Amino acid sequence: MKFLIVGLGNIGPEYALTRHNAGFMVLDRLAAQHGFTFSMTRLAYTAKWQHKGKQLFFIKPTTYMNLSGRAVQYYMKQENIPVENILIITDDKDLPFGKLRLKPKGSPGGHNGLKNIDEVLNTQEYARLRVGIGNNFSKGRQVDFVLGQFPEDELIQLPGYLDRAGNAAITFCTIGIQAAMNNYNQ
């Protein structure tokens, strides 16, 4: 069985450690832990990993956040992966830092990357793992906040948090959405 795991983010060193790149960070952490590497391919950095009889296909779209749907659709078709086997990992300013929320489907909730995926796939029937980044910003400063780097106190906690998010993604693929939700939603 094949799964498509998509980490959302923006390419370029200036975005590397920003809150909006939480999806990329989760996939980078998984790659470091499990020994797979990403290669630049069409529309995305991609990697494959076999785990417990499952084929996991990871992508980090290079289309920038707001056009992520193009890469998701391309690899969904290229790898012949059904929508129910897709997991999108993204940041969420409406969740406190350190909280995870896994859902089998849902609305984009104001997230432009998810909004584009919804439009391109013409469905909201795909799983998403929302990685809380908090919302400690003043009115009108949302863009600066999500494109800003994590403060020192959060950077210290970040590796453990990314590990939990990666484990949630692997659980989704190996034993299903319900078990992953039971284990990782708080």
TrEMBL record:
InterPro entries: Pept_tRNA_hydro (IPR001328), Pept_tRNA_hydro_CS (IPR018171), Pept_tRNA_hydro_sf (IPR036416). GO terms for biological process: protein quality control for misfolded or incompletely synthesized proteins; rescue of stalled ribosome. GO terms for molecular function: peptidyl-tRNA hydrolase activity; tRNA binding. Its EC number is 3.1.1.29. Gene3D superfamilies: Peptidyl-tRNA hydrolase. The record marks N10 as: Discriminates between blocked and unblocked aminoacyl-tRNA. Pfam families: Pept_tRNA_hydro (PF01195). It is found in: Cytoplasm. It comes from the Bacteria. It is an enzyme of class 3 (hydrolase). It catalyses: an N-acyl-L-alpha-aminoacyl-tRNA + H2O = an N-acyl-L-amino acid + a tRNA + H(+). The keyword Lyase does not apply. The record marks D91 as: Stabilizes the basic form of H active site to accept a proton. Keywords: Cytoplasm, Hydrolase, RNA-binding, tRNA-binding. SUPFAM superfamilies: Peptidyl-tRNA hydrolase-like (SSF53178). The active site is at H20 (proton acceptor). TRNA binds at Y15, Y64, N66, N112. GO terms for cellular component: cytoplasm. HAMAP family: Pept_tRNA_hydro_bact. Monomer. Belongs to the PTH family. Catalyzes the release of premature peptidyl moieties from peptidyl-tRNA molecules trapped in stalled 50S ribosomal subunits, and thus maintains levels of free tRNAs and 50S ribosomes. Hydrolyzes ribosome-free peptidyl-tRNAs (with 1 or more amino acids incorporated), which drop off the ribosome during protein synthesis, or as a result of ribosome stalling. This is Peptidyl-tRNA hydrolase. It comes from Spirosoma foliorum. The lineage of its organism: Bacteria, Pseudomonadati, Bacteroidota, Cytophagia, Cytophagales.
